[in-house]
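Dock iron/sulfur cluster; give full complex structure.
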Amino acid sequence: MPVLNLNGTTLPFSAGDRLIDVINHTAVKVPQVCYHPQLGPIQTCDTCMVEVDGNLVRACATSAAEGMKVNTESSRAASAQREAFDRILGNHLLYCTVCDNNNGNCTVHNTTKLLAVEHQQIPYTTKPYERDFTNPFYRYDPDQCILCGRCVQACQNFQVNETLSINWEDPHPRVLWDGGAPIGESSCVSCGHCVTVCPCNALMETTMLGDAGYFTSIAAPVLDRMIELVKGIEPEIGDGPILQLSEFEAEMRESRIKKTKTVCTYCGVGCSYDIWTHDRRILKVEPCDGPANGISTCVKGKFGWEYVNSKDRLTTPLVREGDKFHEATWDEALSLVARRFSEIKSANGPDALAFISSSKCTNEESYLMQKLARAVIGTNNMDNCSRYCQAPATIGLFRTVGYGGDSGSISDIEQSDLVLIIGSNTAESHPVLATRVKQSHKLRGQKLIVSDLRKNEMAARADLFIHPRPGTDLIWLSAVTRYILENGLAKKDFLLKWVNGLDEYIRSLVPFTLEMASERCGIPIERLKQIAHMIVAAESVCVLWAMGVTQHTMGSDTSTAISNLLLVTGNYMRPGTGAYPLRGHNNVQGASDHGAMPNYFPGYQLVSDPEIRAKFEAAWKVTLPPKPGLNNHQMIDAIHQGNLKAMYVFGEEMSMVDSNANYVGDALTKLDFFVMQEIFFSETCRFADVIFPAASALEKEGTFTSTERRIQRLYQALEPLGDSRPDWKIIQDVANRLGAQWNYTHPSEIYKEIASLTPLMAGVTYERLEGYKSLQWPVAADGSDQPLLYTKQFAFPDGKAKLFPLVWTEPTDQPDAQFDLHLNNGRLLEHFHEGNMTYRTEGIREKTPCTFVEVSPELATTRGLRTGSWVQLTSRYGKVHVQAVVTDRVKGDELYMPMNSVEEPVNRLTSSHTDKVTSTPAYKEASVRMEIMAESGPDPLPRTNSRHGHPTPQNGVEVERKWKRPDYHTPGNGLVQIQTRS
Ligand code: SF4
Ligand code: SF4
Ligand code: SF4
Ligand code: FES
């Protein structure tokens, strides 16, 4: 190991280490205001000046080198550090005691203390700008901004939204949004990266303002007088006593601000962070150490928490009385459910009941729900919403490589040479994961190919964007694979050593010529060849896909085609390679992993396997049904056929998110007895007989499993609201009323049982998941996990993968003379699915108030409509009224409708056709006709929506422009006397 000398002590380091990181691992303290390890060197503050071999350098921008002599304490270094910091104080008023950011972690405060600054040499001067409150989630105070540029670096090179810059050439530089727009009218997507990394109070979450400290709620005029008073006595008493007072106040805050680690309840990326609460008020979300996200969040995770304290929360059980509900005691509601379930089971058998678990709730809760269905009721009629989106991807991977999960981690995607995204609006549906691709593409030369019907953000950034005809991805994927095989471009050694079924697979590729693919998909042959050559030229390839692939009648087969292509090109078993079906909900992976499926016990152990069943029967002390149950699509048919009489659904807006919503709604009215468990009175609750009020994720403990198979713990931040209860407690109460004798007192006990019965999770314990620790399954009994799958073999008995032959069939629900337009659908960044949670955050509602339909400019011209025109979309199954947004994100006769509406849900238009293998609805195969209504209104996306903004891309903060200012010189060149405490 190389060594350097730090203040006379020899210190080992690793090649490539930054000098500042080497120093930070010792007890030596060097100021470093603009440095953030996850952002890298920004070099704006100059406070980290140290002497290296006699020269002053910035420690953050210097690489550690063998034999280097580093002096952090020389008078030159100390003088430079202090001069640099004094410049910072010239931009920042120290009123810490009454500052919302006085929470012990303010970099400016802590550096003032570290350098023992008593009196500022460079006087504080205000800047000629107003504070900006135009974003509902955060505000910018130019007068407190120290121009460190962390926010700019985060926005330009980390989130890569490219909104922020600093006007270095201006006499009074400041942070700019879109080059000078109000924040609320800029391209800012409110991801919060900038606010999270700001080292002082210049950028603050609005929820923190006035609520964090003991003196921060004081009215502005009084506060201003107090600040003036403090600054008035500062020359006399120095900063020391003022800092001490503020530190006392900061310590007092420890007792009133609770910081709880939690995991995001929205998408499957698995961001984790501390949530700060004061009583029930949510002060802020503070990401830092999350293994999936570090400092990253999107608008939903950072700011989308108002739903937790919404006045609409269910706080007491409700029981149907005719057309109304009455508030009931838990005893009444539980007794009724137990009695009706027992009656229906006695009269019709256990398979007359069905259970749907929530992919937003915890692993432990899914486990208990399937245990209730199987061990207490005696049915395998058990499913979760992975049926609506992810089941086809799982099948594609089961068929070819063995495990139904992402084959690596987000870090593999980040380091890949080439990322291919198919049918995924990654920047909006998995925003934090998308940032890693955007970063690598912008800064590290990663290649990006996107196949999609829409020119979404990733498509706009891609090196190559293709727009195949709807439902034809399997064709071009197979044709590209065939071309690679035919032209000797396949990874032969890999195929020989690791893959079965090559000959049969090659025979299956006969129809997939480039000519056929070009004709069917509408992609030029040269473009297909280009894709093939880009893939084989790349050292490592990751393929990301989502609902644009899976929600088709060919969803499983197209997922399989993706994995086939990866196998033929040897893109498994190495870092930076593999298959990444992006899981939609925060715990959709975990719900399936933990047995909320009709054919699997936890860990994908078949219910039809007698040995497996015997294991569960012995543990649960019951006899278990051997026949796989109904999936949730089949359940709806079974209700219509009169075979299914009762359902118990928790945390799932089934009547909106299942396709052909009218058909689903009709089914739910036919149930003899329907139990819902929810945090709000959802649309689906309208059909229920009993509604249990559930606690939100912040009000309970448990674990979630993210898209990268990462299991993480969430801790309880708040007490359950009103009379609501955690889902696991409610399920246990129902089970016990039905005669079970469960006695779980904490989710950790449930997990202990899961681990004992599930080889995939054998080594998962709460201790191993403590705090920010996480595990990526499979987890061996000794606790070792597998961030990258298939390092030694594939998950088949002989260790080899399989190429799976495929045929293509026409998509369903195609356009015809009557329904002449293709309708696509998906998520918006700001909302999660139908928006039950996100619409309850006022700022999100303000920026994105409703759904709409995207219409191409050419179609808008032909039909004579404009943005804001009201249209009626009619499909073979239903109709909706929405406003149009004319945009070149869509092309020709293809429409796109976001799914964020309960009033006009897109699923009134979708069919009951499904993927042939998994029964996943073919949501993406829909045709409509569009009638223009007489009325029109304003743009359904208000002016404050980020889509109207104009980003200003640049590489980071462009500090060189600061260094070119005539008033800039490197500190340490001029001698500055700064008084310090002795
Ligand atoms: S997009 Fe907005 S919130 Fe996100 S880093 Fe940029 S300016 Fe900040
Ligand atoms: S607003 Fe930006 S430049 Fe200003 S202090 Fe905060 S992070 Fe630094
Ligand atoms: S919604 Fe997804 S990307 Fe956004 S913070 Fe939550 S987990 Fe992260
Ligand atoms: S920390 Fe090195 S220049 Fe700011």
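Observed: The pocket of iron/sulfur cluster (ligand 2) is lined by residues 145-151, 175, 198, 200, 202-203 (CB under 6 Å).
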